[in-house]
Amino acid sequence: MIRKIKPQIRVIGFDDGTFSFKSKIKRDKTILVGVVMKGSQDVVGVVTRWIEVDGRDATEKMIEAIHNSRFKDLRIIMLKGITYAGFNVVDVEELSRETRMPVIIVIRKKPDLQAMEKALKKHFSDAEEKISLLHKAGKIKELIPGKLYYQAIGVSYDQAEEIIRLTQKSSLIPEPLRLAHMIASAVMSGESKKE
After folding, report:
1. Strands 83-84 and 88-89
2. Comparing C-alpha atoms, which of 62, 67, 59 is closest to residue 48?
3. pLDDT digits (tens, 9 = 90+) for 87-137
């Protein structure tokens, strides 16, 4: 739990790079980028790892990136959803526990969990495990009606909303996530994609 939220709170925001349908078949990898910022203003650094498309290593790679980084004063982990590289689902409870930090999941469009579960059951032998991870993320809260949603682990909803607002700059998406998205898409496709 966070006692006091400062405007320059150290946040790491993770997003993944693009990948093709062919990547899904071959189980290729895509990049995972974590952008470390002080609030919404100063970029402090960037961490990267490679994760398997539709794999099971996103959680482990995030934990590894944080533990092996020089950024020891991080206070919050932000995720742009909990599915990375297709259906490489993050175990947000494990991520929070192993890093000893709260996790805030920011979502632009409210996910259709039933459709996700149906797709998982149709295409994955480990569907039940992935579905369980989806539900571990907790209740989906609406921050901006029809435009921005979030989930919070290890931090109150009020604090999560305050942190989201503190880290927004020129977009509804918090700046660490927006920049992670731009960097990851540029690495994978040669140029950044619009958020």
Report:
1. antiparallel
2. 62
3. 999 999 999 999 999 999 999 998 888 999 999 999 899 999 999 999 999
User: Quick check: 172 and 108 in contact, CB under 8 A?
Assistant: yes
DSSP-derived 3-state class of residue 154 = coil
Residue 101 · residue 65 · CB < 8 Å: no
Domain architecture of the chain: domains with CATH: 10-189 (3.30.2170.10)
- What single letter denotes the amino acid at residue 174? P
**60/3 Cα distance (integer angstroms):** 27
Strand pairing of 29-38 and 10-16? antiparallel
Q: Is 39 helix (H, G, I), strand (E, B) or coil?
A: coil
17 to 51, 61, 191: CA distances (angstroms) = 10, 14, 11
Give me the torsion for CA of 158, 159, 162, 164, rounded to 10°: -110
Q: Is 87 exposed, middle or buried (0-12, 13-18, 19+ CB in 10 A)?
A: buried
